[in-house]
Design goal:
mainly alpha
């Protein structure tokens, strides 16, 4: 039995000289350039990416509407529609349950 074979048996795989890899585990410096990987997004994924980017850039606050409501509250002219508020609360609540099921 040769000592070299015994040593190679117990040496970690990344340090062995296997195939076209160098002894350190990296690519062979003499290897030819290979074609790089490519990723192509579907049109749906591209649309989603555009929507996500736009949403992140936007604050989501309708400043004109906020100012209008602020003015109505300050001048005591704001009229709350309790029925509509209750309907929206129920709609939101049922929407939460539908997503988790």
């Amino acid at each position: 039995m040769q000592i070299k074979n015994l040593i190679d048996t117990y040496r970690p795989a990344e340090n062995r000289n296997i195939g076209n890899k160098s002894a350190r585990g990296g690519p062979d410096p003499g290897a030819t350039a290979r074609q790089s990987d490519r990723v192509t997004l579907s049109s749906g994924a591209q649309t989603l990416h555009t929507a996500m980017t736009t949403a992140q850039e936007s604050s989501g606050v309708r400043t004109e509407r906020v100012e209008q409501l602020r003015h109505q509250v300050e001048t005591n002219t704001y009229q709350m529609n309790s029925r509509r508020t209750a309907e929206k609360m129920v709609e939101q609540e049922s929407g939460l349950w539908e997503r988790s099921v």
